[in-house]
């Protein structure tokens, strides 16, 4: 039973990876991703020397961008699971 649960979870994860990759590989998705990189601290550090709270918020934005970038990468074992 646990193997079936694990397979179902892997399928959900595979489908999510594919959805992220498809979403952000379209022309519109590439534009959105570039904007997310701009506001998500891809090109400059998230630190604000004046405020630890602003730094924490900025690091949260950066973390979301990193999550999107990670999810866009479909692992080989996920690709061949058809």
Can you describe this structure?
This protein has 82 residues and is mostly helical. The protein is 76% helix and 0% strand. It has four helices and no strands. Helix 1 packs across helix 2. The longest helix has 24 residues. The two termini are 21 Å apart. The mean pLDDT is 91.
Give a brief rundown of this model:
This protein has helices at residues 2-25, 27-39, 52-72, 76-79. With 82 residues, it is mainly alpha-helical. Helix 1 crosses helix 2.
Question: What keyword list fits this structure?
Answer:
mainly alpha; 4 helices; single chain; 82 residues
- Low-pLDDT runs of 5+ residues are none
Tell me the helix content: over 70%
Q: Any idea what the shape is?
A: flat
Mean pLDDT over all positions: 91
Largest sheet: none
Count the strands? 0
Structural class: mainly alpha
* Count of helical stretches: 4
Describe the SSE topology.
Elements: H1 2-25, H2 27-39, H3 52-72, H4 76-79
Helix pairs in contact: 1-2
């Amino acid at each position: 039973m646990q193997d079936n649960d694990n397979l179902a979870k892997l399928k959900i994860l595979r489908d999510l990876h594919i959805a992220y990759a498809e979403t952000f590989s379209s022309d519109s998705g590439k534009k959105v991703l570039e904007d997310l990189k701009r506001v998500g601290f891809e090109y400059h550090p998230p630190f604000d020397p004046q405020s630890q709270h602003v730094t924490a918020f900025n690091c949260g934005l950066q973390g979301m961008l990193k999550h999107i970038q990670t999810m866009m990468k479909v692992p080989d074992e996920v690709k061949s699971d058809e």
